[in-house]
Structure formats: C-alpha cells, structure tokens
Amino acid sequence: MKKSPAIKAITISISAFMLFSAVGITANAAEIDSNTKSLKNFQINTYSNSDDTQADLPTSFSSVDYNIVNPPKDQRYNDCWIHSSLSVLETKLLKSGFTANNFSTEHMNLWATTKSNGKGWLRSITSDGYAFTALGYLSSWQGGIEQSDFESFADEYNPDTDLSSLVNYGATAIKYLDNCSREEIKQEIMDNGSIYAAYSHSTFYENSDRTAYFCPKGSPKATGHAIAIVGWDDDFAKENFKTANGILPENNGAWLVKNSWGNYNSLNGYFWMSYEDAYLFSSTFRYNYAIEDVTPITDDIKLMQNEIYGATYEFNYIDYDSVTYLNLFNFSEGYNKLDSVMFESTAKNSDYEIYYVPAENKTPVSDESKWTLLSTGTVPYSGYLNIDTNDFDLPVTYGAIAVKISKNEASDKNTIGVGEWLNKSNGQFAFINETKKGESYIYKDGKMIDILDWYKTERDDNLGGTFVIKAVTNKTELAVTMLGDIDLNNKLDVLDVTDLQMAISGGSNLTAVQKLNADTDQNNEINVNDVTQLQIMISDKN
Q1: Which of 55, 132, 292, 529 is deepest in the core (most CB within 10 A)?
Q2: What angle do CA 146, 150, 155 make, to 5 degrees?
Q3: Residues 326, 402 contacting (CB under 8 angstroms)
Q4: How far apart are CA 306 and CA 293, in angstroms?
Q5: What φ, ψ does residue 89 adopt, rounded to 5°?
Q6: CA 79 from chain center: how many Å?
Q7: From CA 442, how far away is CA 447, in angstroms rounded?
Q8: How far is the C-alpha of 313 from the C-alpha of 346, rounded, in Å?
Q9: What is the mean pLDDT of residues 45-73?
Q10: How far apart are CA 114 and CA 116, in angstroms?
Q11: Contact 350, 405 (CB under 8 A)
Q12: How confident is residue 482, by pLDDT bands cut at 50, 70 and 90?
C-alpha cells in the first residue's frame, strides 16, 4: 500500500538526529595558549592508510594556536548545532584569509523556524535542531551574517525575510565525515581548521573539572550535543578521563573540542574528548562534516537555486543503473557564465555527468542530442560537491542543469539530495518543503517527468521534494535576446502579450533580460504602448 505523508514509512528518530544541550555554568578560566601563528595556506601531505605516510600527521595539533578559532560563546537555547556549525564556518574563513568576527546565531535560529505559510522547519527558537538544518543554511548562502549587520533587523525579523544580501561568504563544498578514519579526520582539521561533530552527553562521563570526557562503549545514549573539534593530542593521558564510574579508555589520545557553554571550566570553554568515546563519529548522530571550500560573494556572483533548506533526505527511490536529475532555472537575470554546479549526494565513488539541458515551453527537452555535457567524474565524497564547468555560456532563457549519477563496480548508489518533507518519530512534521511544479525533473526511459507528478504517481505523495542542484553563475553584460519575447521561448505570440500586460498591471515581475525585451518601442519605459507595439509586431510576423 502506498504511504501518504502522514504515515511515511521512513521517519526521523529525534533521539538519533536531534542535537541540543543544556547551558553550562560560568567559572574563572585559564586561557588556552592562543599565541598568533601563521596558518594561511599551511598544509601537510595528504594522509594515507599506509604506515610510512601516517608520520606526516603531527602527534598533536591545535587550530587555536594559529589564532583562527573565535572564542567559545554561551548558548541560550538548545542551539549547540547553530554555534558549532557557525564556528566551523568562521574557522574555515579565517584559515582562508577572510574575515569572520561574530556570525549571528540569532539569525540562524530565527531563519530555521516556521514560515508564515506553515512551511520550512517546524520549530521555535527554543527547540532543538538538526545538523542538516545548518547544512541547508550554509549551502544555500543564507549565512553566516555578522551579528553587527543583523542587529538592525533583529527586532522585526521573521523567517519570511530574505537577508542573503548580508552574506559575504558562501560555502560551496561540504564533506560528510561519517565512516572516516581517525587519520582522515585529523587531515580535515589540518586542511579546514575545524570540523562539526556530535556525541552523547552526560555529566556522568565528565572528569571532576569538566575538562575531559569519555563515554565507554556499551553505555546508554544520552542527550545529543554538537561541538566543533579544533585539534588533537595523541599523548593526552588516559588517566585524565577518570570519572565516577572509574572506567578509563584503553589508550591515550584525545580530540580538542570547542564547546558552546561559555567559560565554564578551567580551559576557557574547551575540553578534551577521548578517541575511544562510544558515540563520537558513530552512526547515531549525523552528519559530522567539514567545510571544504568557500567563496566570497560579490555583486558579480549569483547562486541559482530552487530551495534554501538543502538536502533533508536522499532520493533513493529508483533502482536503475543510472538516473538523471534536473533543476530548471530562468537564466535571464544577466548571470550567464556558469562557474560551477553544486549538488548533494551520498553516492560516493559513483560516476556523475553534468549537462546543460535547453528548455522548450519552460520544460527541459528529452532529446539528449540537444544536451551539452559540462563535466564528468566520480563522486569523491558524500556531501555537497562543487564541480567546475569552465565558465560555460548559458543561453539567456529557461534552461536546466542535469546531474546524471550512475552505479559502478565501486558503488551501488545513484542517489542525490532532495529537499523533502520529514516526520519526527512521533509522526508529526519536522519539515515541510516548498516545492513547486516546474522546478525539478527526473529523466528516465527517454521521458522528462516533473518531480511533483512523479511523487504523486509513484508514492501517492502530494508534497514531493526539490533536488539539491545549484548553479554558481557570474554576471555578464545584458543584451536584448529578442524584442518582444517576454516568456523567453525565442518566438513571438499572444502569450508574450499576456505576460507583458500582467507585468504592467503588477501581476508579475520581469527579470532584467525580460525588461529589455519588453521595451518594444525602445523608449526606455515599459507601459501600455509596448503592448500595442508588440501586438503590431506579432501581426506583421503573421
């Protein structure tokens, strides 16, 4: 029997994914050494699992020592996931030579609450959250926003408000670290300054001064808590983890953790966590991740996207050797150099192909001979990928970006991220997407299918989802593509007249190129005279 949204078979377990914590106490604190060092462009040789190259990783390391970690904050609500994700972004930017003073946790918290239409994340500012809530915020360039920039909007802000114009840097690549080795995680810290992680927190497993934490294997899971890991020490003595239960790790070694409880201990808000902790980097909490790449955002760059919440689910419903996923965009705003394509996928080691697909009547064409291949490769990791497309010249009209993912001997997955509604374990909605017809498509068996039609037909699902495929575009010089072509389909007809009349009456907005096309009498104004001129043009053509 097909499932309706209310009884969806796969739900989220709140205890497994929700990351939150209680606010810690404040105490006098000794400073962690923060002598300024130069880490700009500092890299070590990439790790491998062979014994002869693991020596390239130092036995201890701390990004705090290089002055690229902002001081810990004191969280107000169950928002450790916000503090940790923004901390990881700040450190990545500082390591890359950019500016990141104090990103607003308040903005991210408000952004991730329910919109006036009842959609988005169904939570309040005091509610817990999810790692992938933060991932959507970062990958969609909704933040971070400096608190100083947000303060003038704070009193009147609601999640319907778009403040993306205040975002100066966008995350373009994010790597999931689940199932990674200790050496891989160390390398990610070296490369990016810090990583986001989560574990099961209980005061029962803290040492007496709250500077060391170890939860033994087999311990019951407690409250989930998100953190930023900023270093490690292979020689950190296992005796430091002595707690009330008297159980110690078998070996020395620990991660240096930046917490979000203010200056609550003698390490000024940092603590050490044993390599052998039962829940850190386990499958219980996901996703642990590193921000692999960021880009400055200027007036010359635009992120084309059909969703702002990122991947809430993996689209894994079609068991074909390969599946092509598409997002349709209107490339008529004057950003027509395709710098790169971003998409989310957990199909690590699968093959991918990226295409530009032209559209007819605002629908991607099914004729593959008209598609343009932009890039091919193998999915290098699970997460958000950013694939270079060599400044492909996008036609100034509607067109689609297609990502074809194929299984191979190294991977049996062909999944892609989708912004799909989610249920909590109690059956209530945790997230409701805002998918519209004409945004996402599936191409299979030689047919182009709107994603909402597919969900309704194949899964009896009226909410559907939106594929997480984004286009990073650069500004180009605007020009008229065809005078009078308002709907950008390269022909003149009565539909263009209707679109122009609606725009003049305020019933719709025109893009920059559409405005140029709409000025049919060439007097730098758009009014009823342009409608008359367009009607004459159509009559003469016929």
Answers
A1: 132
A2: 155
A3: yes
A4: 21
A5: -65, -45
A6: 18
A7: 8
A8: 10
A9: 74
A10: 7
A11: yes
A12: confident
Would you place residue 425 in the very low, low, confident or very high pLDDT band (cuts 50, 70, 90)? confident
> 76-109 b/e with 16+ CB inside 10 Å = b?
ebbbbbbbbbbbbbbbbbbbbeeebeebbbbbbb
Q: How far is CA 222 from CA 18, 125, 202, 261, in A?
A: 11, 22, 6, 18
Nearest to 269 by CA among 36, 34, 98: 34
Mean pLDDT to the nearest integer, 89-113: 97
Structure tokens at 396: 């100034």
Cα(18)–Cα(78) distance, rounded to whole angstroms? Answer: 10
Q: What is the pLDDT, as a whole number, of residue 56?
A: 85
Return the amino acid letter for 66. Answer: Y
Give the separation between CA 314 and CA 8, rounded to whole angstroms: 15
SS (H, E, C) 282-293: CCCCCCCEEEEE
pLDDT in tens, 8-18: 333 333 333 44
Structure tokens at 197: 């992680």
Q: Which residue has the tokens 């670290």?
A: 177
Average pLDDT, the chain: 89
Beta-sheet pairing, 120-121 with 169-176: unpaired
Stated pTM of the model: 0.85
pLDDT tens digit sequence for 346-389:
999 999 999 999 999 999 999 999 999 999 999 999 999 999 99
Location of structure tokens 């400096």 = 146
In one-letter notation, the amino acid at residue 307 is E
Q: Is the dihedral of CA 84, 87, 93, 95 positive or negative?
A: negative
Q: How far apart are CA 492 and CA 542, in angstroms?
A: 10
**Do residues 516 and 485 touch, judged by C-beta distance below 8 A?**
no
**524 Cβ neighbours under 8 A, 6+ residues apart:** none
CA distances 175 to 143, 186, 345, 529, Å, are: 18, 14, 10, 54
Tokens for 483?
């005078």
Q: Which of these, 41, 96, 44, lies nearest to 68 by C-alpha position?
A: 96
- State which H helix or E strand residue 360 sits in: strand 351-360
CB 300 within 8 A of CB 474: yes
Residue type, 113: T
Tokens at residue 258, please?
């930046």
Summarize the confidence of residues 158-174 as an average pLDDT. 97
H or E segment and range at residue 254:
strand 254-258
Please report the DSSP string for 404-429 in residue order. EEE-BTTB----EEEEE-EE-TTSSE
Pairing status of strand 469-474 against strand 337-345: antiparallel
